[in-house]
Structure of PLAC8 family protein:
Amino acid sequence: MASQEYLDKMQGRQNFRNLWHTDLVGTIQADTRYCCFAFWCAPCVSYLLRKRALYNDMSRYVCCAGYMPCSGRCGESRCPEFCLCTEVLLCFGNSVASTRFLLQDEFNIQTTKCDNCIIGFMFCLQQIACIFSIVAMIVGSDEIQEASQLLSCLADMVYCTVCACMQTQHKIEMDKRDGMFGPQPMAVPPVQQMSRIDQPFPPSVGYPPQPAYGQPYGYPPPQAHGYPATSYPPKP
């Protein structure tokens, strides 16, 4: 039942209206230093971003943001900082994905097709590397074993690179949320809106509407007896 709700939630994100401020391809150029930081210190960045996604209020913290079966059963309420450290170290992939889902559900952000292709390629490459490792172990061929090791190294490099880009994407999105790209930061949502898996529809929060530039085109206002609408004809 929970897995079906999770799949429905994943499909519902495709109908969200907003887009990430920066796609995965543009994150390196958008914030090069942070992307390097996320590559070399990935667990630390994941910890900082999750805490920031919760508006630095660790009383909101739930393991894996409530998206996993273990969520809410790990003693998060007693020691949320320690539980978050454990999450980013032992379940790093889930921690990055949970922060991503948290931001998507909060601001109705959909992932573009290009980003989906990059993430899908990362997963497929990991599966292929795993299959090659199993085949090399069964066959015992040195050539297949060497190819398997090279493929595993390539898969690990792609995984680390994509995760660094994803975390940089999250950081840029929260910079936008906190008003670093505009005059007005986002308000902190209520606590109940931070729980995502049990909500059939996205919460009614998001970025404020952008101001319209200019006025819509159309016909001028009607005139009375050849005079402008704001003036009156002279008395006879």
